[in-house]
Amino acid sequence: MSLTFQTADGPVYALSDIDLQVKHGEFVSLIGPSGCGKTTLLRIVADLEQPTAGRVEVNGVSARQARLDRAYGYVFQAPALYPWRNIERNVTLPLEIIGMAREERRERARKYLELVNLGGFEKKFPWQLSGGMQQRASIARALCFEPELLLMDEPFGALDEIVRDHLNEQLLSLWAKTGKTVVFVTHSIPEAVFLSTRIVVMSPRPGRIIDVIDTNFPRDRTLDIRETPEFLKVAHRVREGLRAGHSYDD
Amino acid sequence: MTIDAGFADPAHRTLVSRLTAGKAGPVAIVSLVILMLWYAGAIGMNARMQIDAFQRQGVSWGLPDLVRETLAQERPLLPAPHQILIEMKQTIFDMRVTSKRSLVFHSWVTLSSTLLGFAAGTGLGIVLAIGIVHVRSLDKSLMPWVISSQTIPILAIAPMVVVVLGAIGLKGLVPKAIISTYLCFFPVTIGMVKGLRSPDLLQLDLMRTYNANKFQTLRLLRWPAALPFLFASLKVAIAISLVGAIVGELPTGAQAGLGARLLAGSYYGQTIQIWSALVTAALLASALVALVGVAERYLLRRMGALP
Questions:
Q1: pLDDT higher than threshold 60 for residue A248
Q2: Inter-chain CB proximity B210 and A48 less than 8 Å
Q3: Structural domains of chain A sorted by starting position, each given as residue range(s) with its CATH number in brackets
């Protein structure tokens, strides 16, 4: 699969020869430097961009059909909460579009806000929450209509490291609990290694996959595994891959 | 550590800084200055006529006589504020509201067509904006007409509207309301086009991932995002809607309404009557704008705006 943007300066090869299969229940991270097309790849899977060549299948149907079926929840770089809706009504926004009954919507919101540790914040408005809490609310919003697939585009990129570590742990236990398939875009090596079952290393110009690394850390791992030799070995291999695919001299 | 707060010490504040610190101080000062200028203007502008009158009567006069008399003329060039207030008290409070001279009666006539025109203009403005935002060809084809409609002077088109509609039997409220509509749909359209387009790409993408249709995107995203823009437009719209209603009353031969009061006053040189109608119109407009502001605050607070 590939994508070429036609610009005034001529074609830009955003992605080329991408061939990737994600199995059910996997946690796959796309990692690479800025401009390597990892976000674009995720947006293609979400049918927010169209590839110029090739084919994307989600759960055995086209990406477009998957979007029409609401088969995935998408978490953006920013929380993208609607400021005029309180947290509960932000979380129930997709349910309202689906046409779910009010009582059931409320039930779902409570359940998923509880899951992201935001119980009791239902009536608060976004501006009353910290950045990390807002992003957790946006994850609850992506989960509440119970899609099989979760697409996350650098969801913790704008947060500080302490909050990020905390949310990584929460996300991991969330994934272990729900058994969702997750495709996760990041540019943080420790984050990718800690969270993933598989790490896809990408490089820019044109955006392509240069390494795919399987990890097999236990599902109930904690942040402590970041000190173990196995962890450092995987992190090292990711770093090597990034270095090989990207010359920093330009 | 100590912080020298000498400047913030209340005892060190001057009279000027104390007056300008609060909200009431500056308002009072500005009002006072305007009143003083007005009185000075009234004395200055009416002096010529008063001096002529003194000379005709052959009386001797001093400066105090001049000041007193210029502020008490029956048909002054520029009435003094208290003359207008007295006239307004008489025509608003002391008169039956059914009387042809009651300003309450005339205000109601103008207000009713203002509100009708405002409602119609707001509706039209919103419908046009929704069309322009959603249909690309409308953006190109309609927008130039919307803008050029406002380049025509309303004073030129108002008599034609009134006369043409009168010829097909539409009289009274409706022609005036149409002129108000014509004026006030414009800020609503401009504001709402901007407001409906204000959601950022992320918020719109979110709707796409939910496979929301256009109507849902409008109802759940574009419309609430546009409301602050709508209220800014409504404040302008309701004020010019009143202007439209008054202008619409001028060519009807001065039957009723604040515009009719203005016209009748100018026929007979009743400047106090003109000015009291003007001041009433201004107060009415301020009250209407303030009402829109109250509605705005109430609604935006319910939508989680910062208190």
A1: no
A2: no
A3: 3-71+148-245 (3.40.50.300), 81-146 (no CATH)
Pairing type for strands A181-186 and A149-153 reads parallel
Per-residue pLDDT, averaged over A76-96, amounts to 91
Over range B19-32, report the average pLDDT: 82
Q: Is B252 exposed, middle or buried (0-12, 13-18, 19+ CB in 10 A)?
A: buried
- Which regions of chain B carry the CATH code 1.10.3720.10? 103-302
Percent of chain A with pLDDT over 70: 92
Q: What percent of chain B has pLDDT over 70?
A: 91
CB contacts of B203 in chain A (<8 Å) are 80, 82
Name which of B211, B213, B219, B227 to mutate to probe chain A: the one with the most chain A Cβ atoms within 10 A of its Cβ: B211
Cβ of B202 and A76 within 8 Å? yes
Residue among B202, B205, B206 with most chain A CBs within 10 A, to mutate: B206
State the maximum Cα–Cα separation within chain A, in Å, rounded to a whole number.
Answer: 58
